[in-house]
Amino acid sequence: MALEFFTMSIPETGRSETFAARAEQAGWDGITFTDSQNLVGDPFVGLALAARAAPNLQLMTGVTNPATRHPAALATAIATVQEESSGRAICGIGRGDTALFHLGRPPMLLDDFFARCQELHTYLQHGTIEINGHPSRLRWLDRAKQAPVPLDIASSGPKVISFAARTAERITFAIGADQERMAWAIDVARRAARDAGREHGPSFGAYVTVACHPDHAIGRDLVRGSVAAFAHFSAMPGSTGAGLADADKKLVAEVGRAYDSNFHLVNSAEHSQVLPDEFVDRFAVVGGPDACAARLQELAALGLERFVVTGPSFGADYEQAQVHNRLVTTELLPSLR
Fold first, then answer.
1. What residues contact residue 252 under an 8 Å CB cut-off, 6+ apart?
2. How many domains is the chain built from?
3. Interatomic CA distance for residues 332 and 7, integer angstroms
4. 181 in a domain, yes or no?
């Protein structure tokens, strides 16, 4: 199966169509829109608009959550995109930590997340759940012409990875680009799928931070905020740092203690300065086009079928970020095809 490459974007009002059209023209297979109600516009409106502007692009939430949206409402929103796009929608979902932070709410408990994802998946599969003794299903899907929307769970810890392997059509690991940790995560998923009797199991992908730049130091500084965010996800309450070496666990824990969600994905944030260069080099893909291609191919060889690529973080030097963007579209993506 050919590798797929998604670009991460935001549903900025008035720009979703432009972002999608540019992504398709640049050679991306898909685009993701984030769901963070206090920071950006609605991703489902954005994806529906993108469907018209880019008729071949896959359309994914990256990510939505079942905490700020009821599973029935969430299922209807993404299933509507599926119908309007002739079957190109993917429901990328996570716990919604940033979305909840801006509502003054704590991170979603894992048991609640699992229960709501089960309900969401049942709705998407045209099934029925029981709510307070009342059978609940999306009746309008009886008229749907497209296949059910695949569920893609963003996963970092072993509990979420195992749940996703038992439940969803797709897993996209959010653990950084360290090869050893990726191998660990894939092994956890494969064992969980096998134990659940899933002969083929879900497809695997990964969120990866890429800084494609001929000057390694400049490239590294373009993405510190993104790498810190992935470290933060591995330091959430209840996380054990599974799959990390002891030294990395300490660094991730330090980022978690210092992390300020008001400056999520911001290069200049204090928590972004905690990570040493060596950590950034391992947990992001940094270097010229040939070096980046080699790193991504090594990761793909572990069993990944797609990458969701995030590039320069907020506050990155604009001119240097443009160098990255140009190299990704004119050299990196073509070489990986």
1. 231, 234, 235, 241, 244
2. 1
3. 13
4. no
Half-sphere exposure of 332 (CA within 13 A, CB side): 30
Burial class (CB in 10 A: 0-12, 13-18, 19+), 1: exposed
The CA-atom distances, in angstroms, between 217 and each of 97, 99, 211, 224, 288 are: 30, 32, 10, 11, 11
User: Which tens digits make up the pLDDT trace of 81-122?
Assistant: 999 999 999 999 999 988 998 999 998 999 999 999 999 999
**Structural tokens at position 78:** 């993404």
Q: What is the value of pTM for the model shown?
A: 0.93
| Tokens standing for residue 278 | 């060596």
Q: Is 32 a member of any domain?
A: yes
Domain range spanning residue 64? 1-149
Classify residue 129 as exposed, middle or buried by CB count within 10 Å of its CB (0-12, 13-18, 19+): middle
CATH number at residue 117: 3.20.20.30
| In a domain? residue 285 | no
- Residue 9 — left, alpha, or beta (φ > 0 → left; ψ -120 to 50 → alpha)? beta
Task: Give the distance, in angstroms, between the CA of residue 34 and the centroid of all CA atoms in the same chain.
Answer: 9
Which tens digit of pLDDT belongs to each residue from 158-196?
999 999 999 999 999 999 999 999 999 999 999 999 999
In a domain, 80, yes or no: yes
